[in-house]
Amino acid sequence: MSNDTYRVAVVGAGGTGAYYGGALARAGADVTMIARGPHLEAINKNGLQLNSVLLGDFQVECTATDDMASIERVDLVIFAVKSWGTDAAIKAMASGDMVGEGTLIISMQNGIDSEPQLSAAFGPEHVLGCTATVSALIAEPGVVNQAGGPGSLVIGEMDGGPSDRVTSLVERCLTAGLAAEANDNIEMALWMKFTFICALSGMTALTRKPIGEIFAQETTTEMYRQVLSEVAAVARAKGVGISEELVDSTLKTTQGREPFIIGSMGHDLIAGNPIEIGLLNARVVEMGKELGIDTPANFAIEAALRPHEGGAG
What we know:
By secondary structure, the protein is of the alpha/beta class. It is 45% helix and 20% strand. It has helices at residues 15-26, 37-46, 86-94, 114-122, 164-175, 186-207, 211-215, 218-237, 244-255, 264-271, 281-291, 296-305, and strands spanning 7-11, 30-34, 48-52, 56-60, 63-65, 76-79, 104-107, 127-140, 143-157, 179-182.
C-alpha cells in the first residue's frame, strides 16, 4: 500500500460502491468514482451526497470519471459493477495503469464468480475475497440513500489464513466507520452471501414484494427456505460446509431485518433494468445439474425471471 494519500477507485459507483467509497472518502482517502451520465456529472459538480441510517448524512468531494484509462495506480479497487458489465469493466481497468504493484481489488458483486474472473485478468495476488451486505440505492444523480442492511464488509485472503494486508485494510475500513472484519475462511463467507442473496433477490424479484410481505405468508416463507437449502446443498457438494443449521439461522436473521427490504435484483426488475438472474438462481441450477443436486425452487425463479433478463428496454 502507498505511504502517501490512500487512493481508491470505485468501479461502478451505484448504491453499494458509492456507500463504501463515500465512507472511505469522508475518512480522507482520495476516491475516484467511475460512473456514467447524470450521476457522473452531479458528483463532479456537487460531490457525492450520502444519506445513511448507519453513517449519518454527509457530502464528500470526490472525482468522477467514465474513463478508467485516465486513472493512475490506486491502492484499492472496489469492484461493484452489475454482472452484465463485468467483462467491459475488466477490459477498461486493464487499459490503463489503475492496477499496479500492490493494488488490492475487492469485489462487491453478487455471486461466486467474480474473484476468479478478476484473478484471471489481473493475477490472484491482487484479489482479496470480500462480501458486502448493504441496501443502498441511487436516489437521484449524485445522491445515494442507504436505508437498510448491516453495511458489513467481510474480507479475507482467497487461499485462507490471516495476512497483514487484510488486517490493514480492515482497520482502514473500521476507521471510516464501516462494519468490517477479517475472515480466515472467505470461501465459506462468499458461499454464505451467495446463499443469502439467491433467496433475498430471487424471492423479492419473483414476487415483486419486500421480505416483510414474503415472510407474512407460509407458502412464500417455505419457498424462501427451500431456495436457501438448495444453494447450501450445492455448496456442500462442492466441499463448502453450509449446514441446514446455517440455513435456518440465515432465514431467522433475514426475518429480523427491515421488512421493507427488496433485493437488488428485485429493485432492478421493478425499475425495468437488466437483472442478474444468470449470476444467481440460474447459476445454482447450472451447478446443481453438474453435481446431481435437485434445485426446483431456484429453477422456478429462473424460469419466471429469464424473460426479464435484458430489462424492459
